[in-house]
Amino acid sequence: MSPVEPPPSRWTFGDPQGYDPDDDLVGIGADLAPGTLLAAYRRGLFPMPSGTPGDPMYWFCPVRRGVLPLDGLVVSKSLRRSCREFEIRVDTAFAEVADACADPSRPQGWIDGDIRAAYLRLHELGWAHSVEAWRDGRLAGGLYGVGIGGLFAGESMFHRERDASKVALVALVEGLRASYPAQRLLDVQWSTPHLASLGVVEVSREEYLRRLGRALHVREPDLFGER
């Protein structure tokens, strides 16, 4: 099933070339309607709550963007063994993955009810996806994000068993590499020491936007072709 294009947003995010070159935060306000979210991702932006209930949404386009080269994922021998211990499913438990990622007991949790509801709407329209690691009929870990053409913008991941979220990441990368790997873009927003250990690198905002423009013209991967 092809993604359904929602009504266009009534908001505009301007020209990314005019954003402050020293500030990741490039906008405040707007809404989380599907058309607004898609417009933002197509411009290189993503939303995050301010952390204060009632505040308007914050929109970021990092000066240094974290991306995972599809040929750069670091897979240790132990992780490779773990990959054989889980069953990978796609888009079978999106809400459960989102709920696990939004668990308020997690350190630095940022996913609130508005964010959760917004991405569930995107999922229902075919734009947001989950990659899940299962064992013995139980969801052990996974990740979710937004797919637009050749872009996959990773939003969050979680695990209930060791390596389960990494196994889901391996499956995602393998699925993205199956066709047009050179044109695809796996965005992780910001790099962290943990993500860097898996192969994530930083690129400039300008380089990210250049790659994004190319990725948006690539067809979506077969990984997300069946719903």
Q: Which word captures the global form?
A: globular
Enumerate how many helices there are, as a single number: 7
State the order of secondary-structure elements, H for helix, E for strand: EHEEEHEHHEEEHEHEH
What is the topology, as strand order, of the major beta sheet? Answer: 5-6-7-8-9-4-10
Helical fraction equals 25-40%
Biggest sheet architecture: 7 strands, mixed
The total of beta strands comes to: 10
Q: Runs with pLDDT <50, length 5+?
A: none
SS-based class? alpha+beta
Q: β content, as a range?
A: 15-25%
Provide the gyration radius in Å.
17 Å
Q: What number is the mean pLDDT?
A: 94
First-to-last CA distance:
6 Å
Description:
The protein has a seven-stranded mixed beta sheet, sandwiched between helices. It has a three-stranded antiparallel beta sheet with strand order 1-3-2. 30% of the residues lie in helices and 24% in strands. The radius of gyration is 17 Å and the shape is globular. By secondary structure, the protein is of the alpha+beta class. It has helices at 34-43, 77-83, 94-101, 113-124, 164-177, 193-197, 205-215; strands at residues 25-28, 46-48, 58-60, 64-67, 87-90, 128-135, 138-148, 151-159, 185-189, 201-204.
How would you describe this structure in keywords?
alpha+beta; 7 helices
Structure, briefly:
30% of the residues lie in helices and 24% in strands. With 227 residues, it is α+β, with helices and mostly antiparallel strands.
Helix and strand arrangement:
Layout: E1 25-28, H1 34-43, E2 46-48, E3 58-60, E4 64-67, H2 77-83, E5 87-90, H3 94-101, H4 113-124, E6 128-135, E7 138-148, E8 151-159, H5 164-177, E9 185-189, H6 193-197, E10 201-204, H7 205-215
Parallel strand pairs: 8-9
Antiparallel strand pairs: 1-3, 2-3, 4-9, 4-10, 5-6, 6-7, 7-8
Helix pairs in contact: 2-5, 3-4
